[in-house]
Amino acid sequence: MPTRRRCPRIPSWLGLLLAGLTLAGCQSASSTEAAAVVHLEPAKFGGLKSCFQWGEMYLGSVPGPEELELAARRGVGLLLDLRQSPAQDSALSLQARDLGMEYAHAPIDPEQLSDGEVDRALTALAAAEERPALLFCETGSRAAMVAALFRIERQPDSLERAIEDARRAGMKPGSSESALRRQAARLIAGQVSTKPAGWSGPPPAR
After folding, report:
1. How far is CA 1 from CA 4, 6, 106, 162, 170, in A?
2. Which of 28, 77, 153, 171 could form a disulfide with 187 if both were Cys (CB 3.0 to 4.6 A apart)?
3. The dihedral of CA 144, 146, 149, 150: what is its sign?
4. Tens of pLDDT along 184-193?
């Protein structure tokens, strides 16, 4: 009758060590995935000038009728007008609403960038959190600043990258950047929060 060979027993300490290494590897992978940051990238959006994209947030110059129709096809839910015009653009807002999109006017002075201006713009974006948004102004510079602040409030560690991206997207150097840094410090200090519960980052680009 053949003799059965016994499998060698693994010492309990070695089994615990292997389990710990496996768990650490899983946690490391999860941490790396959670820490992934979505960067601002150049985008094509019809005839929009200086157009960039962060997740499903688009920013650029003022959209025309063709860009509004494209926005509707891409599922954009909010048009955020950051121009300093005294009143909202009625023609643009009417077309946006006819296409099923919300229009909000939150004028921004890029050199002053007051608390109230920033809070209004970020609150409008937070209300549209689950839907793509299109931020715009004459040149895209104000849109770049608001997008940077939106990122910084939610990802404080992205401060310098967000400011660098804002420069690439058209933010003017000098007083505008100083105003942006001042507002970034206020947001990081928690003096205002527009983050909805459970927010974990921007949705992936489609």
Report:
1. 9, 15, 88, 75, 84
2. 153
3. negative
4. 999 999 866 5
CB 167 within 8 A of CB 173: yes
CA pair distance 182, 178, nearest whole angstrom? 6
Question: What is residue 140's DSSP assignment?
Answer: S
Closest CA to 143 of 157, 132, 133: 133
Instruction: Name beta bridge partners: 134.
Output: 58, 79
Counting beta carbons within 10 angstroms of the beta carbon of residue 142, is it exposed (0 to 12), middle (13 to 18) or buried (19 or more)? buried
**Cβ contact 202:54 at 8 Å:** yes
pLDDT in tens, 141-185: 999 999 999 999 999 999 999 999 999 999 988 999 999 999 999
Number of C-beta neighbours around residue 38 at 10 A: 18
At residue 55, what is the residue type? G
**Closest C-alpha among 44, 33, 101 to residue 72:** 101
Please write the tens of the pLDDT for every residue from 56-99. Answer: 899 999 999 999 999 999 999 999 999 998 677 789 999 999 99
Number of H helices and E strands in the chain, helices first, is 7, 6
Give, for 151, the enclosing helix (H) or strand (E).
helix 141-154
Q: What is the pLDDT of the chain when averaged over all its residues?
A: 81
